[in-house]
Amino acid sequence: MRTSFTPEQLADPETAASQTAIRKCVHCGFCTATCPTYVLLGDERDSPRGRIELIREMLERGGAPSPSTVTHVDRCLSCLACTTTCPSGVDYAQLIDHARAHIEEHHVRPWHERQIRRLIPAILTRPRRLALALAAGRLARPLEPTLRRLNLAPLAALLRLVPPRQPKPSPARFFAAAGKKRGRVILLQGCVEPAMAPQIRAAAIRLITRAGYEVMLTDGEGCCGALSQHLGRADEARAMARTNAAAWAAAGKVDAIVTTAAGCGTMLKSYGRLIGKEGAPAARRTPVMKAHPISVAYHAACSLQHGQQIKTAPLALLAEAGFDVRLVPEGHLCCGSAGVYNILQPELATQLRDRKAANIAGTGAAVVAAGNVGCMAQLTPALDAPVVHPVELLDWATGGPKPAALMAPEAVIKPRAARVE
Ligand code: SF4
Ligand code: SF4
Questions:
Q1: Which residue in 21, 121, 159, 319 has a CA-CA distance of 20 to 30 Å to 196?
Q2: Do 171 and 387 meet the contact criterion of CB atoms below 8 Å apart?
Q3: What is the pLDDT of residue 56?
Q4: pLDDT tens across 253-294, in order?
Q5: Is 37 in the pocket of ligand 2 (CB under 6 A)?
Q6: Residue 414 confidence class, pLDDT cut points 50, 70, 90
């Protein structure tokens, strides 16, 4: 795609990087077939190719974007299915992050949208505030239909994601290796996951220590910055990345920084682009103690399969652990969670969720495994079967307890009856 940025514009490294990305696009359109919003809406402006054109025009012109451009950029899930498909290697993550930051800086959103976008990082990235908000959300659940009628769909969507009351995570900060010590890792604490699904961290700690690694939770660490990045608040995301890099450096030498949230992992791996540091999640295997041959539908989180290009490793680990792993048709399509997309774009997110739930049900598997708490929260209300994290299953197979959500593993998954959203 041709560009006509001025030399002054190209002095900005972000614009220079975006020009490089735009120029790689050859308009072939391969990406349109795998873009969830194009698949749903059939509008070129809701396809990767169309968005690249809109972003080019917006960045070249500078200043306030047109309302139409804001609409079509906002509808992008940042799922990066287009990056996986594109034969020309267009760095779409660079373009969409730059576009969101430009819109955040130059576009004035309606008052209620501004408040929602301000509240999301203020609550979701602070575990104490999030715990309070979840408690309030449980009380306010009956108000969900009223909020929808009042045209407050984002708030109604938030209430739908509130899980039942969860036990508090362990306050310990250090966990010794079981048996011979092979190394030491930092486990990213995350902000949403401990409040929504604390059993995931507990299972991960058991799994990693059983594999011979010490696990540390570091002081001074905060949100990875992914939510802020999704909202176009690039400076805020950069500040969070710097805070975390400093906290991990102060913790001394470790073999890896491990996260159980695919979205956080993608963000960590982008720290190099963001602040010039590197994140390096990794893990070693632990022997299977007891195989549980139940069927598992593996839902691939976009941040893992597209953002990090990790596709076969989770399937192989689950299969090695003795599970009967089933692939979900249209596995490349997002479930609609996508960071805070299900709050900001609830209608499209619900369509994608129901499509995913139907595809999962088609596998006939007894259990769903998803490596991202956002996907788990998104899918759980749409399925009658348990949705667990793969580390819960791996922990179970290697000597840990049976996941609490898995009390009826023989049940066949069915999508819940379609609901009016
Ligand atoms: S697949 Fe890549 S090169 Fe082709 S239109 Fe899409 S972004 Fe452009
Ligand atoms: S990131 Fe996802 S929704 Fe956005 S253009 Fe690419 S494929 Fe489409």
A1: 319
A2: no
A3: 98
A4: 899 999 999 989 988 988 877 776 444 444 445 655 566 779
A5: yes
A6: low
- Contact between 350 and 161 under an 8 Å Cβ cutoff? The reply is no
375-398 pLDDT, tens digit per residue, is: 999 999 999 889 999 999 999 999
Query: Is the CB of 39 within 6 Å of ligand 2?
Result: no
Distance 120 CA to ligand 2 centre (A): 22
pLDDT at 96 over 60: yes
Query: Ligand 2 centroid to 149 CA: how many Å?
Result: 30
